[in-house]
Amino acid sequence: MEQHYVDALRTDDHPIIKELYTGYRIDFLGFSKRYKLSEEDAIDIYQEAFITLRKHAISGKLYKIESSLKTYLFGIGKHLIYKKLKEYSLKANYTPSLQKEEGFYEEVSVDPEEELTQEQLLLKRYFNLLGKSCQRMLTLSFYRGLTNEEISKLEGYESEAVVRSQKSRCLKTLKDLIKNSKDNG
Amino acid sequence: MVDSILIEKYFSGNLSEEELLEFEKRYENNTEFRQEIDFLKNLKAVSKAEDTQQFKATLQRF
Question: What is the ipTM score, two decimals?
Fold first, then answer.
């Protein structure tokens, strides 16, 4: 897959992401017409497919994929279209053909998203109390999986050491918020 | 290797096979290390949920 696009998704390069997202949208809506989806559903599916594409980029999965980004994106979209058609078929008076079409874009399976546990939902409350810069620092480190060096370059920090100490300060603040709440509760 | 480097490499997917074994061993035998990793894994899940929500809002502006 095109490495520079995968990097752009990982690092939130908005101009490139916008170019990709808007660039394939019309094509995807055209592609989805063959499945007789409502336009509203097709737009929602395209958005969900693109969000899934980004998740796969962040997880590192896309670096091993040989197909083009467009083929992969449409493959995810195809998977989500089949899922939606199954939902349609459960509704009365609507029975679309679930015959899977081969060729064109190969379906890409998507694992269902895990719901946050009770413990994580509680942690989310404290995470939201952090300042935006700490939220971003922790997101870049632990979800996006960027190294301190990469964060330093992306966010314009003086050095990798500054990132390390800033991250450590943010983690301490988060843990203190949790601890204080337990002490007061 | 100090914990902070091992943790950074774990979350960025940059552990070598040897380092991964060291990580797993430490996770198994060191309670404090295990608690820290479990906490950070929860933090990863939380920041993923928040980040995805923000990304969705960004796409809606395009």
Answer: 0.93
